[in-house]
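A quick aside before the break. I want you to see a complete sequence-to-structure record at least once, exactly as it would be stored in a machine-readable document. Don't worry about memorizing anything.
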Amino acid sequence: MLYAPLIIIVLFSFTESKVIGNWTGFSVQLYGNLFSGATSVKLIRALVNTLLIALISGMLSTLLGSVAAVGIFNLRNRTRKIIQSVSRIPILNADIITGVSLLLLFVSLGISRGFVTVVLAHVTFCTPYVVLSVMPRLHRMDPNLYEAALDLGATPSMALRKVILPEILPGIISGFILSVTLSIDDFVVTIFNIGNEGLETLSTYIYNDARKGGLTPELRALSTIIFIMVLTLLIIINRRAQKKQPARNLK
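That is the input. The structure line, written in tokens, reads:
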């Protein structure tokens, strides 16, 4: 049941019918339309904006979240629990509350809504997920490694780069992938902070397209391409993890 909608979209991306459920014969015309015509220009522009916002916010969230995780981990137990609870508020908070709160903040500060405000909004709700991804790696790390590096003459910054960073790198990568995925998927926070400058992301494009009376058929082809890319990425990551597991067992 979970994968049935995806399978239907993939199947009907290979027909020219404007309505899902009406098979008019096998065709790859929708894929060709993605790279030609007026509709394709707007759709590709929305996709490019979505990817740019996702990559920029993902990198900023990963940087802030990783530094925050290391800082929180080195706090005293009581302070650590308080800060961790506060950092989870954007995760537990409803998206619409986050979107409206950021909108009011930007308006009160006189910041024009657009690309920058969308990136800042995405960084706001993505950073806590990076903290959650990195924190378990810090708890699993041997606490004596950092002290040993200092005893052997390493400076704190060198020990951070040479000892801590390699240990938490899998968590950082997971946090970055999660941030990019959440950014691409977000609609509610984006729609409140995107402004009226003509900027469109994939989610807002689909929303506006649906309000006009139906979805553009080319969206089925684009959705299929994105699904295949994500599926391929997951397979590659899992294969690499399986190959590393025997090596760890040998050690």
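Two observations worth writing down. The CA atoms of residues 46 and 53 lie 11 Å apart. The radius of gyration is 22 Å. We'll return to this after the break.
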